[in-house]
Amino acid sequence: MNPTDIIIPHDLLPQDGRFGSGPSKIRPAQIDALSAAGRTLLGTSHRQDPVKNVVGSIREGLSEFFHIPDGYEAVLGNGGASAFWDVICANVITRTAAVGVYGSFSQKMATSIVSAPFLNDPVIYESAPGTYRIPDFTPEADTYCWAHNETSTGVAAPVRRVPGSREAGALTVVDATSAAAALPVDISETDIYYFSPQKAFGSEGGLWIAILSPAAVERAFHIGETLECAHGERWIPPFLSLTSAITNSRKNQTLNTPSLSTLLLLDNQVRYLNEQGGLAWSSKHCADNAQLLYTWAEASSFANPFVEDPAARSNSVVTVDLVEDLHDSDVLAALRTNGIVDVSGYRKLGRNQLRVGVFPNVQTRDVAQLTHCIDYVARQLLMNS
C-alpha cells in the first residue's frame, strides 16, 4: 500500500508532531516573546544596551542553570558548534589532542584537528556506533575531546575528567550540542562545555555557547599571544578568535552581528527552564520521555532500541531500529502525512531506524501518542506488505 494513504485516527495523534533532533520544537510562548520583543529589537544594533541586555540575561541565566563554578564564564560566538570545532583547533589545543570518536559528530571534531596544519594528528580512541569511547590518559595530550551526546546514534557518554589529565595541565573539552539542558552534567568536570542552541534550548542555529573554565581562558590567551601568525606558528582567523569572543562576551555582545531572533528565543527558553526548576527539572523531563520510548521499543514486535547498553542510551535523542520487513521510509512517509515530522534516522548511519528528539519542549503525552501512531502505521504496513 501507499504509506501516504494511511490516515491515523485523530485520537492517537500528538498535540504537536515535532520530534526533531535539531532544529527542535520551539514553544509557542517563545514565538510570542519573539514577536513582542522583536517589534523593537529586530533591525537594531547589537552594540547597544537593549540587545546587550538580552545577551547579559542569557549569560546570567546559563550560569544559574548550569550552576557554573566560581571563575567559569559563559561565552557566546557566531557560527554554531561546527565553527567551534575550528575555534578549538585554533585557540585551545596546543599541540596534541586525545579524541573519543563514536559517531558522525565526534568524528567531525577529529577531522577538524587532523586538517589543522599546525597541530599534531590527534590520538584517536574509537568505538563502533551505538557505543561510546572516552580517551584514556595520554601523556602527550594537552587537550581531551569527546561528545556528551552523539546525536547521530543516540549514545550518551559520561562527562568526567580523564584521571591524571588535570594534573598534567591538559584541558577537557566536551561537545554538548544535543546534551546541554537535556542531560545532567557537572561543569567542574570540564574546561569547555560547548553547544548550539537549536536543540534542548529550543532556539535557532548559527550561534555557539561555551562555558569556559579559568584554565581554558588562560590557554586561549596564551596561544593568542605566543603562537599567533606573527611568530609563524599558527593562523587564528579573526572570526575564530576565542579571545575576541571572550572579550566581546564580557561586554555582553558577540564579535560579529548575531541573529537577534536566535538570541531572543534562547533568552526566553533559559528563563523558562530556570523557572521550571533548572537542569534538574529538564534532565528528568527528558529522561521520562526517553524511558517511555525505550520501554515501548523493548516490548515491540517490530522495533528495538539501537543502543544495546541501557547505561549508554541517550535521554535526549532516542534511536530505534525497525525489523527488516518494515521500511523506515514508509513509516516516515505515513507519519509525515499525518503531521508527525523529523523522526528519521541519521542519514550517514544508514540504518533502518527512527530517531526521536525528546528535548525539554517535547511533552511526555506527545511521546506516548507518537508510540501509538507508530504502532498503528506499522500494523497497516505489515498487514499489507
From TrEMBL:
GO terms for molecular function: alanine-glyoxylate transaminase activity; L-serine-pyruvate transaminase activity; O-phospho-L-serine:2-oxoglutarate aminotransferase activity. Its cofactor is pyridoxal 5'-phosphate. GO terms for biological process: glycine biosynthetic process, by transamination of glyoxylate; L-serine biosynthetic process; pyridoxine biosynthetic process. It comes from the Bacteria. InterPro entries: Aminotrans_V_dom (IPR000192), Pser_aminoTfrase (IPR022278), Pser_aminoTfrase_mycobac (IPR006272), PyrdxlP-dep_Trfase (IPR015424), PyrdxlP-dep_Trfase_major (IPR015421), PyrdxlP-dep_Trfase_small (IPR015422). Pfam families: Aminotran_5 (PF00266). Keywords: Amino-acid biosynthesis, Aminotransferase, Cytoplasm, Pyridoxal phosphate, Pyridoxine biosynthesis, Serine biosynthesis, Transferase. Its EC number is 2.6.1.52. It catalyses: O-phospho-L-serine + 2-oxoglutarate = 3-phosphooxypyruvate + L-glutamate; 4-(phosphooxy)-L-threonine + 2-oxoglutarate = (R)-3-hydroxy-2-oxo-4-phosphooxybutanoate + L-glutamate. Pathway: Amino-acid biosynthesis; L-serine biosynthesis; L-serine from 3-phospho-D-glycerate: step 2/3. Residues 139-344 form the Aminotransferase class V domain. Catalyzes the reversible conversion of 3-phosphohydroxypyruvate to phosphoserine and of 3-hydroxy-2-oxo-4-phosphonooxybutanoate to phosphohydroxythreonine. Belongs to the class-V pyridoxal-phosphate-dependent aminotransferase family. SerC subfamily. PANTHER family: ALANINE--GLYOXYLATE AMINOTRANSFERASE, AMINOTRANSFERASE CLASS V. This is phosphoserine transaminase. It comes from Bifidobacterium magnum.
